Amino acid sequence: MRELDFVKSYFDAWNQWDAKCIADHLTPEGQYVDMPDQRKFDHDELLKTLADFFCHEKNHYQLVGDVLTGKDSIAFQYSVLPLGLTPGKEAAKPWFGAEFVTLQGDSAVRIDDYYKIPDQSRTSPTNVIQRKYAKSGLSTEQLELHKSQLTNLMQMEQAYLDSELTLPRLAALVKCPVNHLSQVINSGFGMSFFDYLNQYRIEEAKKLLRLEEGQLQAILSIAFEVGFNSNSAFYAAFKKSSGQTPAQFRQSHARN
């Protein structure tokens, strides 16, 4: 049964601390959602976050109770036992969580993870992001200033239309170090650089897709106009953002 095979493979990957194998359980457009922190990760973001997490935390993950299955869905509870305890210290208590998985074929299009860690000295995967920037030197006031500068660049100057825009080039426009800009986007806006960039590109594409019949452009032309370098990247980002392909979006907003 594919649902049970998925769960077994998924737990094996967590217990082997294999970040890539865990992330590979997602479809190319899939998302892992950390519900307590309200953070979303695509395949590459989850891979990087878990790789950092496993450098600091070694846990044993175990299924609790039965796996509940439905049409293209899985739900299960799990326990987490911290490992690598210092001799003579009190054993760490396990903590618990639950995941709800939406399948597409043999992979997950979405994984919602709910958990509660009673000992706040322990870390969750997304706590790694906060710890990563703990010594960055960027104050709250500077972060808010850079957020404002960045928003102005995007909304007023439409910097996202530059198909060659990279994190270092954007940092130069904001006039701040690259690691500070990365923190502004990750912590200040709660998303990756590419998701932040693509949200503006997709909104611009939607405006063009809504134009009246006599003003319509080819979808490939729109993809390049809003800053994408390839049609496939445009389609993947659009579907991830809106749940529709560009053609489906255009059709649903066609004026009769």
Describe this structure in words.
By secondary structure, the protein is α+β, with helices and mostly antiparallel strands. It has helices at residues 2-15, 19-23, 43-56, 127-132, 140-155, 167-174, 178-188, 193-209, 219-225, 231-242, 246-252; strands spanning 26-34, 39-41, 59-70, 73-82, 95-104, 107-116. It folds into 2 domains: 2-132, Nuclear Transport Factor 2, Chain: A; 140-252, Arc Repressor Mutant, subunit A. Helix content is 46%, strand content 21%. Helix 5 (140-155) packs across helix 7 (178-188) and helix 8 (193-209) packs across helix 10. The protein is flat, with a radius of gyration of 21 Å. The termini are far apart. Mean pLDDT is 84; it is low at 85-90.
Task: Summarize the SSE layout with pairings.
Blueprint: H1 2-15, H2 19-23, E1 26-34, E2 39-41, H3 43-56, E3 59-70, E4 73-82, E5 95-104, E6 107-116, H4 127-132, H5 140-155, H6 167-174, H7 178-188, H8 193-209, H9 219-225, H10 231-242, H11 246-252
Parallel strand pairs: 1-6
Antiparallel strand pairs: 1-2, 3-4, 4-5, 5-6
